[in-house]
Write a structure and sequence with these properties.
The complex is a heterodimer. In chain A, about 30% of the residues lie in helices and about 30% in strands. Chain A is built from 16 helices and 37 strands. In chain A, a hairpin with a 2-residue loop joins β26 and β27. In chain A, α12 packs across α13. Chain B is mostly helical. Chain B is built from ten helices and no strands. At the A-B interface, α9, β37 and α16 of A face α2, α3, α4, α5 and α7 of B.
């Protein structure tokens, strides 16, 4: 009896965290992590102790658990990550002798049963026996549906020199992917699962993460002079007797936890004041656009925390201003940011490997001592990484398998925020660390242009949707996951209309926040909100590598004149028109001042050069200002339009508003009747001038 | 004479040789036109019947440029090859014209005449060609290698530095150091050319080593003269750049105006190069060891008649072949 009571008590204690957190929680709270981490600055390592309570929210009995041990990606050159990346990522190289790894010292059930003997490494993606980024452990008893399991794990994480989002440089620590993290169990019907299975991929060069939502309660012990930032809200700081301080951070409804520490950080705090940042007019405008009530659109205050290095302190306002724009526009367009804090980390110089990364409620930016004038990469990276709080953070798509759903959606959203908040950006190239744009006016652009231009580089080797490690190469992964998706979504926006698209994105976010959607779920939302079948769009733009190119192939206007041959008049008489008759008429027409009476036979041929079939607007403009507008369905390769009018064609244009952003060639979208050479002369003379200057410089050397 | 006076006189010499000025500009413009023609052909073919032409008249349209790069990606190496070939041809032409230019500036009248110029082109070509080979070795050793060594040292020194500001300052100091060495090497080979012409030397190696001695023995003057000429070039850049940005280029008329302005800028660069040569000849003649100023000329101030004394002609006429004292390499 005593034993039974004890068992009941243990089960109750095990359920307690999940049950208590479920009240008012935004997510299903599959995991509850209680972690104690102690930084060893000498060893550049973390001694960790983790208590994980995991809820089996499937209808299956689970006999095995799978975990990510991401840090083992940096253990040696034989890991899948190192093989795929060649030891370099985003311009950083893995440094010899500064490897990273995670060792599990013990893994026990709360009953004391030791799981470690059953631990084995898995390599589900590439069968690389040397990869140690995924483990499986066998359970003595299966976990029943809707019941929980508690594990205690002792681990030791050795950080690499900062590389691929995590590590140290000097006293700077960016600690991400550092603890044993359980995979996602997908029961049949969830996303693409046809049977219950773990979704726990190896760490790849071109992929990020996928995990379940829950609560993190983490005690971080560091030397007392360190400034610490982390996912979630700092609940307390507790100085210890050994010169260290323990910082406790807690956050619900997140799927990861990262932290940073550096004694030189300057901590800047500012409240995102929703009432000040967003006017009532903006709220009602957006409410109308997205079809929600003003109260549903209204934002809440958020504490913004910036951890910035001293030599960038003058740029604190730029970081915070960009963050405010992110909070404002993402919040208005998709839904309010629900967490109380957001922390921006300015990585250390030479800690660039940690720059531009997102974790729940904690993002890393990236700037330099001498940044370009705003808006520049500084603003863009803050807004982009903040955007991941939505596309990855709250809408928890699988970044391994469908990177477009986070990176691409976020590139689209970032572009919209950048253009709305800052207007056009300037191209800025640094020369010896000094932005050239400080001295010469540079070319300005809107984000659509850059997204479209970058898309050409892929030459369409892949479909947009693909496992991140299975693209043709890293460039193809990058192009398809980021700019091509952004340009595709923008094209979709143009096709369904701004209002419908705003409602699509809002509905998708609202429906799938704190859940794990697939591409099909987004497609379903599009079809539902647009009120029509848009599968043709996805088939051609997302699940295809076909190219899109429409052109105006021909434009002609000829004055109508006499035709040669025999003609019967209404009276039955037959008359022959000869060449002499033609010449005579031309002479008379030349003498006549009534040129406006002349009729012109005009012809326009519009052609579909690419494989993608999509209805496209056609506009023909005549010399007298008259316009003819129509739509070419693109089903056949080309179509011809004929006109008989007392005026010549000035030009014809297909897709005049450039709705189809993925059209490979905007130049052939239009055709004028008269040829012009001014543009060619302007830029070829400029090119000649550049060459002249190069030759003059060469002269000085010879 | 001070370096400033030499520079002043050199500038005057350059400006009064307008035919030479024009000839050097023409050489530059024709070569660049050869490279620009295929670019014009491509742009014209792409734009002439497109509304994109209007856009490109008004501004630099990134959409068009990215399309163009994508479309002609495979042809880009050919364009680079063309430019590189032109570069090689231009080097040859520069070797020729430098001989002619220095012959003009070191002649008795210091005035451009076709015979002096073209004979100078021919006579000094191979000497300058040999000197170019020596110069490449010098640039390789003193500039490239020094840059490599300094870069490696800076990288090692700053490897664990955590402040970008300090690393940048050290890097800039390194660049300044390398640039200074570059300037010195450049001066040395300019004076080596002057020496080959004025002293009728034939050995490129000897000329190079003797001009090292010359440059370092008269370092203040040679460096000051270099800086004066460089500042003159910078002055033209400072005048030209804002002017070009002020002018609209969205009509044919304005395109022509800007093109003319650009050509004036190139003329100014040619003028700076001529000033370099003329003042270096004057300085060398003024400071060279031996029988004092070679031509004993006295240049009056600009605007008045320039007179030259013919009483002490150079020992060897600059265009006389076979009278050198240095053995050929």
């Amino acid at each position: 009896m005593k034993k039974t009571l004890l068992m009941m008590l243990l089960v109750w204690i095990g359920l307690l965290p999940v049950a208590s957190l479920a009240q008012g929680a935004l997510s299903q709270q599959v995991v509850h992590y209680q972690i104690a981490a102690r930084l060893d600055p000498q060893a550049k390592a973390i001694q960790g102790s983790e208590t994980l309570t995991w809820l089996n929210n499937s209808s299956d009995e689970i006999r095995e658990l799978q975990f990510h041990l991401y840090l083992n990606a940096f253990k040696n050159e034989k890991s899948t990550f190192m093989r795929e990346s060649g030891g370099q990522l985003r311009g950083d190289r893995a440094e010899e002798g500064k490897w990273g790894y995670v060792d599990i010292h013990s893994m026990k059930l709360d009953s004391g049963y030791d799981l470690k003997p059953s631990m084995k490494f898995l390599h589900p993606d590439d069968d690389n026996a040397d990869d140690q980024t995924v483990i499986a452990v066998a359970l003595p008893e299966p976990v029943k549906p809707n019941s929980t399991l508690t594990l205690k794990i002792e681990f030791y994480s050795k950080l690499p020199r900062v590389f691929a989002r995590t590590g140290f440089f000097g006293d700077f620590y960016m600690v991400g992917q550092w603890f044993p993290k359980i995979g996602v169990y997908e029961q049949a019907g969830m996303r693409y699962a046809t049977k219950g299975q773990w979704n726990c991929h190896q760490f790849h060069a071109t992929s990020e993460f996928y995990a379940d939502y829950g609560t993190y309660h983490v005690d971080i012990t560091v030397p007392s002079n360190y400034v610490v930032g982390a996912t979630g809200v700092e609940q307390s700081t507790h100085p210890n007797n050994d010169g260290t301080t323990t910082h406790t951070f807690v956050q619900e409804d997140v799927h990861d936890f990262a932290w940073t520490a550096d004694p030189t950080y300057i901590r800047v705090e500012k409240i995102f004041d929703a009432g000040r940042m967003v006017s009532e007019a903006e709220i009602s405008g957006v409410a109308r656009l997205v079809g929600r009530s003003p109260d549903e659109v209204r934002l809440q205050n958020v504490k913004m925390i910036l951890l910035i290095h001293p030599e960038h302190a003058a740029q604190a306002d730029r970081h915070l201003r960009a963050l405010e724009y992110g909070l404002k526009y993402f919040g208005l367009w998709y839904g309010k940011y629900p967490y109380p804090t957001i922390t921006v980390v300015d990585p250390a110089y030479k800690g660039g490997g940690a720059a531009g990364m997102e974790y729940p409620t904690l993002i890393t930016a990236g700037t330099s001592w001498l940044p370009s004038n705003p808006p520049s990469g500084l603003e863009e990276v803050v807004i982009h990484e903040f955007g991941h709080q939505y596309w990855y953070g709250m809408v928890g798509s699988n970044e391994f398998e469908e990177s477009w759903l986070d990176e691409g959606f976020n590139t689209y959203s970032t572009s919209q925020v950048m253009d709305t908040a800052y207007g056009p950006s300037s191209i800025s190239i640094p020369f010896m660390g000094i932005p050239v744009s400080w001295f010469v006016s540079s070319i300005k652009y809107f984000e659509d242009t850059i997204n479209r231009g970058e898309t050409f580089g892929s030459t369409y080797r892949d479909y947009i949707v693909r496992n991140a490690w299975e693209y043709y190469d890293q460039v193809s992964y990058g192009v398809n996951s980021y700019p091509r998706t952004a340009a595709t979504l923008r094209t979709l926006q143009h096709l369904v209309g701004d209002q419908t698209f705003a409602r699509i994105m809002r509905t998708y976010f609202e429906r799938w926040r704190f859940r794990h959607p697939s591409s099909n779920d987004f497609r379903a939302v599009v079809n539902e909100v647009a009120g029509r079948d848009m599968n043709w769009f996805f088939d051609q733009f997302v699940y295809s590598s076909n190219t899109l190119d429409y052109s105006v192939d021909k434009v002609s206007s000829e004055k109508q004149g006499l035709r040669l041959g025999l003609f019967d008049d209404p009276g039955g008489k037959r008359r022959e028109v000869t060449v002499d008759d033609q010449k005579k008429q031309e002479k008379e027409a030349a003498k006549s001042k009534k040129q406006e009476d002349a009729l012109y036979e005009s012809e326009v041929i519009v052609r579909r050069i690419g494989e993608v079939v999509v209805p496209v607007d056609v506009r023909v403009v005549f010399e007298n200002g008259e316009q003819f507008n129509t739509t070419f369905d693109g089903q056949y390769r080309w179509t011809r339009y004929r006109f008989l009018k007392p005026t010549k064609i000035r030009y014809a244009e297909v897709d005049p508003e450039h709705k189809l952003l993925l059209d490979l060639n905007f130049t052939n979208n239009s055709r004028t009747l008269a040829a012009h050479h001014g543009g060619a002369v302007r830029w070829s003379s400029k090119f000649m001038f550049w060459i002249q200057n190069c030759l003059m410089s060469l002269m000085a050397l010879v | 004479m001070t370096a400033w006076e030499i520079f002043y006189q050199g500038r005057y010499l350059a400006s009064r040789n307008k035919k030479l000025w024009f000839l050097l500009w023409l050489m530059n413009a024709l070569m660049a036109a050869v490279a620009a023609l295929p670019v014009f052909g491509i742009l014209s073919a792409e734009l002439k019947n497109s509304l994109m032409e209007t856009s490109m008249m008004n501004r630099f349209n990134l959409d068009f440029v990215s399309e163009l790069i994508f479309k002609y990606w495979d042809s880009l190496p050919m364009l680079f090859m063309l430019v590189a070939t032109l570069g090689i041809v231009y080097v040859v032409l520069t070797l020729l014209s430098t001989g002619g230019t220095l012959a003009v500036f070191s002649s008795a009248e210091r005035r451009f005449t076709a015979p002096i110029f073209f004979r100078g082109c021919g006579v000094y070509f191979w000497r300058f060609f040999r000197l170019l080979i020596v110069a490449v070795i010098f640039y390789g050793i003193f500039v490239m290698a020094l840059n490599g060594i300094l870069t490696s040292l800076v990288d090692k020194l700053t490897k664990s530095w955590t402040q970008e500001r300090l690393v940048r300052l050290v890097s800039w100091a390194k660049v300044l150091g390398v640039a200074f060495v570059f300037v010195v090497v450049n001066m040395i080979f300019d004076y080596a050319k002057v020496r080959l012409v004025v002293d009728e030397g034939r050995s490129a190696v000897m000329a190079a080593f003797r001009s090292i001695k010359f440059v370092f023995r008269n370092f203040k003057q040679t460096l000051a003269l270099f800086l004066f000429c460089m500042l003159l070039g910078l002055l033209f850049i400072v005048i030209y750049n804002p002017l070009e940005h002020l002018l609209p280029q969205n009509t044919k008329r304005w395109i022509i105006v800007v093109f003319i302005l650009q050509q004036f800028f190139i003329l100014a660069r040619v003028y700076v190069r001529m000033t370099f040569f003329s003042s270096e000849v004057l300085l060398y003649e003024n400071l060279r060891p031996g029988p004092g100023p070679a031509k004993g000329e006295s240049l009056s101030s600009p605007g008045s008649t320039v007179t030259f004394s013919e009483t002490s002609p150079p020992e060897n006429s600059p265009v006389q072949e076979g009278s050198a004292t240095d053995p050929a390499i």
